Amino acid sequence: MSELIDDCAQLPFALTHPEHPLPAARGAAPWQVDERCAHQVEGMADYGV
Known about the structure:
Layout: H1 2-9, H2 13-16, H3 35-40
């Protein structure tokens, strides 16, 4: 519990004080799953994932 409290104490000021909101989020770059990535999870269905 103390670790969680310590982590929360490190939250940015803008998240804990809504009157000072964060800047607008930037658009995320589009991504695609390539064959190398797909190959890493090949067979995962056999494990119930």
